[in-house]
Design brief:
By secondary structure, the protein is an alpha+beta fold. It has two domains: about 120 residues, Roll (SH3 type barrels), CATH 2.30.30; about 80 residues, Alpha-Beta Plaits (2-Layer Sandwich), CATH 3.30.70.100. It contains six helices and ten strands. The two termini are about 55 Å apart. About 15% of the residues are buried.
Length: about 240
């Protein structure tokens, strides 16, 4: 974490140095013009500089927006290098924040270059903003089964699964009386890194299936009952 913070500080310092460099060049050119051409009125130069700045502003609008957005991102740090973020349809790990854009490495090993202005103006989901995050998994049991027994079994699965933290404690709640099942939702907290949440979810789902099978608790699938009444067909979901 200290290394990441140092890298961000270096990038911020480099950006500020670049801005200062261009300001010095502009000021130097202004002073040189007044020395080389003594007859030039400084007021005319300032007025000309103002008109030129407006023209340049329109010409390089997107570049300037990305430049200042990058400066604000590095200054206020809504996310940092190494954070896992999601913007629009893109999600991955922040690799680099430079003056024009931010580079994100997706979970599939691809690179996305996002203009800083988009990152600053749009909503960004920072998945690793906190040390832990919650995962939710739903499972359905048959209506003839005891939901309290199933809740106890699922809690045991969560408490015995590696990488699930004890604080906050895992929970199991009944969330719906669906067409073919009583649905229970498992909620648990793990390290916020994607690889940990994915690995833990796989363990929970696998162990849930095994534990419910051992207990003889049915995991139903959608069924349809067809009844013949006076040569008419009535169909309803089971």
């Amino acid at each position: 974490m200290a290394t990441i913070k140092a890298n961000v500080d270096i990038m911020l310092a480099a950006l500020m140095a670049r801005i200062a460099f261009f300001l010095v060049i502009i000021f130097g050119a202004f002073v040189a013009a007044t020395v080389i051409f003594p007859g030039v009125n400084p007021g005319d130069l300032i007025a000309g500089l103002g008109i030129g700045s407006v023209a340049l502003g329109f010409a390089f609008k997107d570049v300037l927006q990305n430049l200042f957005a990058g400066f604000l991102i590095l200054l206020y740090r809504p996310f940092a290098i190494g954070d896992q973020i999601k913007i629009d349809d893109f999600e991955g790990t922040v690799e680099e924040i430079n003056v024009r854009a931010t580079k994100i490495k997706t979970y599939d090993g691809e690179r996305v270059v996002v203009p800083n202005n988009e990152l600053y103006m749009k909503s960004v989901l920072v998945r690793t903003a906190f040390p832990h995050r919650r995962t939710k998994i739903e499972v359905g049991i048959g209506y003839d089964e005891s939901h309290e027994k199933a809740r106890e079994i699922l809690l045991g699965v969560l408490k015995n699964t590696e990488d699930i933290v004890d604080n906050p404690e895992p929970e199991v709640e009944v969330v719906a009386l669906a067409d073919s099942s009583v649905n229970l939702r498992m909620l648990f907290w793990t390290d916020s890194v994607k690889s940990v949440t994915r690995r833990t979810s796989d363990k929970v789902v696998s162990e849930t299936k095994r534990a419910l099978d051992e207990a003889g608790i049915e995991i139903p699938f959608p069924q349809r009952v067809v009844t013949m009444v006076d040569n008419e067909v009535e169909s309803k979901a089971a």
